Amino acid sequence: MSYLEYNVKRVPSGLSKVLHMNWPLVLLICAVASFGFLMLYSVAGGSTSPWVEPQMKRFALGLVAMFIVAFIPIWFWRNVAMLAYVVALALLVAVEFIGVVGMGAQRWIDLGFMRLQPSELMKITLIMLLAAYYDVLDIKKVSRPLWVALPVALILLPVFLVLKQPDLGTSILLTAGGGVVMFAAGVHWLYFAVVIAAGVGLVATVFYSRGTDWQLLQDYQFRRIDTFLNPENDPLGAGYHITQSKIALGSGGWTGRGFMEGTQSRLNFLPEKHTDFIFTTLAEEFGFIGGISLLMLYGLIIVFCLISAFRSRDRFSSLLIVGIAATFFFFFAVNMAMVMGLAPVVGVPLPLVSYGGSAMLVLMVAFGLVQSAHIHRPR
Amino acid sequence: MKRPDKDIAASARMITRRGLVVGGLMGGVLGALALRMRNLQVEQAEQFRFLAEENRINIRLIPPARGLIFDRNGVLLAGNAPNYKVVITREEAGDVDAVLETLNSIVQLPEDDLDRARREISRRSAFVPVTVADRLTWEQFSEVAVNTPALPGIATEVGLSRYYPLQGDFAHSIGYVGPVSDYDLERLNDDDPLLQIPRFQIGKTGIEAKFEHDLRGSAGTSQIEVNAAGRVMRELDRQEGETGASLQLTLDHVLQNFTEVRLAGESAAVVVMDVDNGDIRAIASAPSFDPNKFVRGISGPDYRALLNDEYRPLADKTVQGTYPPGSTFKMVTALAALEAGVIGPEERVFCGGFHRLGTRRFHCWKRGGHGWMDLVDSLKQSCDVYYYDVSQRVGIDKIAEMARRLGLGTKFDLPMSAVSEGLIPTQAWKRANRGEGWQVGDTLNASIGQGFVLTSPLQLAVMTARLATGREVQPRLVRAVNDIPQAVSDAPSLGIRPLFLNLIQQSMYEVSNLRGGTAYGSRVTEDAYKLAGKTGTSQVRNITAEERARGVFRNEDLPWNRRDHALFVGYAPYDRPRYAISVVVEHGGGGSKAAAPIARDVLLQAMYGELPPLSAYPAHQRNMIEERQRNLELRPRQEPEQGRSRA
């Protein structure tokens, strides 16, 4: 669909756009972010420094960005999708050369006022490009092998670059987010079945190869897998995070120990308590009720996004929203699974809650895109 | 491109259908997460809460053994002894006062130990074990150990503590260790976790302080699981620390002990140096003190006694103390004059008992004067007027330059506390520090090592070694760190003409061996071991005109602390120099009477390697020497540690 196909007259313009925004979504986002402020306040021992204050500033900045993105018509975003992808890809290549090495992995480009993580940017631009691609592509060709191979290449290119940094968490999010867009666009389910079957087969083969002379992984890599499967065997080594995080979580019980009363996180048993493992503090202090509330808020964000996607008759908008919702979902699902000992520790923050600038800003821009699609949907 | 409406509808249907599938899967995952959360937080909550409360993983530091210090022959000078101690952990003890009370009824503890422990306990975190008492006897220790069930939070530990087997002999060079203090933490600016251990021993003075980094070693860690009662459930992981580096010094414990004993009753300093490589063989400051007292924590009365002693046992007179060098400085003036060409080797100066400068008279120590003096005679008889005369011709700046070349006014890089620079005055120095111009009178005073000139015994020993060899010998105190030999600085030539040097050496020989020499009384009769030297007597006060008129300047008639310092510098054997020595006896009177005999005894001991035979002494002195040797309370020669006997 091109610009002319939209019934421009029926699309709100000017300040009336504010009225047509998806307000429940905005409120949900603010609620989740508030959980974050509360927890950062608690892990800092009841202080707004060093985490709450910068986090609030970034969130405010994010809200402004969201509104700006939302007010720009969605067709503009579709038209720049290709460009955005190329720029993000170029930045990803650039971090290889000028990236600042942080936490043992090359992820940042220092812009002076903030550190840009191109891999975060790529999470949106990849979804945008795939949505635009399927918007242009003739529906009948969607499942033809050649037309399936192209988007797969578009996904794998950045995934490969991100893996090289190395950042396993982000590459999983990119693959999963891209995969969901392809699935929603109508690519035949057999492709997915084959990929999943192949994946399972590969994992089985890798495990089977252990101890034979054609072993596919190094010994230490196998040991890491062991640790994940049975962290109690190595409570101070690699299994430390998982064991401690489970203890903190579990000791929260139904109602938790109360705000600022968590002992496990306070006593520094927990690593990364303000970033990747912030959920444990929440679960320890607010218990099952607190944890499930956050989970429900996240669920509601997904639901509101999906409803918005289904109501839109614009293919680009729908696919974009589904992709963003899926990425957001994988974000918190992987983090929570990791914290609860259901997934290996891969380093994915809890969206909108964990301390961190790049991820927060990118997520707010993504929600801006969702809002833009919502406001400018054909009616 | 225009998409048909049919396609738009189909696309929307497909997205909705697939979107619902995705949404369903997401819902499933959310459900699984919620179930897991319920499982952890509700069903297993009891168990995890127990784990959180009861099981804590603690990391304890294992202090490393401090590096050992050996003498040049591998004899242990500083080692570690087991230390039986009792520690208390506040969070496990509950009522600390009650527990301490019970402990006190089992083993009597000094009140200040308990006070210190209480202060320490309130200062540290609840889970840090604090030492209540250490250096318990084995009996006390086992009594506490048996009674631990009645003493919650109390544990017995065996640690290591520094001890110095040779007591006072090396108190000034090696120094001592003591418990780390807040001041140390600030001073060191070191984030080594070991320093956070209460009462951890670190070097406070001397080599112990200067080599703190090497001697300390690095901490090991023990990761242990403890339950709520503080009982250690199991050790999960243990990483041994690294023992501190061992040091081998250049000192010789036999010679050092001999020197200390020989100096008994005096306030004195002796430095013995190997003239070839600069190895310091003995460096003694008397009286000394027992460093072990400081390790244990010295008692108030003991400390006050050390502080109030007018012989100042705590001060290191060898490197820190500075004295006017007196006549031992005359070699410097002589060499400066010879090099400047203001006087020839044979040229003579008339000494009539004083030197006139304007209206002032500068007196020679010999009131009647020495008559005509050449260089050799002036040194041999230590004529002052000769030096007044030549110094006026050569000027202070040339003298100062020569002094520096010989090592005076230089801060040597020795790992001892408060190594002083001394003072070699120049015209510029006086203008800058005293705000007035240099007077010719200042030059005359400086020429005989009085006035502003200040030198440490170490500098005098270095000067003597340089005079004996003509090379720029550097002092050295550490031979090897962890068995890795330390570099001997190559000693380049001083660039003094051999003719001049020989003249000085000849004079020093005559001082000690020819009738009329100021140290003739302390000569050696064994040909192979004859010494060459120079006496010095430095005034610590101005002789007033009134005193001079009354003729009261016999030292014996003055109170001790106003008497002159006695000095002697020398080397031996005079023809093939091996050792250089400097001796300063504070307020000892004349150099020839108080300092030279000490220098002779120590040098002979160094060369023989044992108590010198009487045959080395002049026949008429042998009875007296034998008597003195009998009264020396020497420590028996120590055995080197296994595998360390390297000479």
Characterization of the model:
The complex is a heterodimer of chains A (379) and B (647). Chain A has 379 residues and is an all-alpha fold. Chain A contains 13 helices and 3 strands, in the order H-H-H-E-E-E-H-H-H-H-H-H-H-H-H-H. Helix content of chain A is 65%, strand content 3%. The two termini of chain A are 14 Å apart. In chain A, 48% of the residues are buried. The mean pLDDT of chain A is 82. By secondary structure, chain B is an alpha+beta fold. Chain B has 2 domains: 58-249, Penicillin-binding protein 2a (Domain 2) (Alpha-Beta Complex); 253-631, Beta-lactamase (3-Layer(aba) Sandwich). The longest helix of chain B is centred in the N-terminal third of the chain and has 39 residues, at 5-43. Chain B is elongated and about 130 Å long. The mean pLDDT of chain B is 87. Chains A and B meet through helix 6, helix 9, helix 11 and helix 12 of A and helix 1 and helix 2 of B.
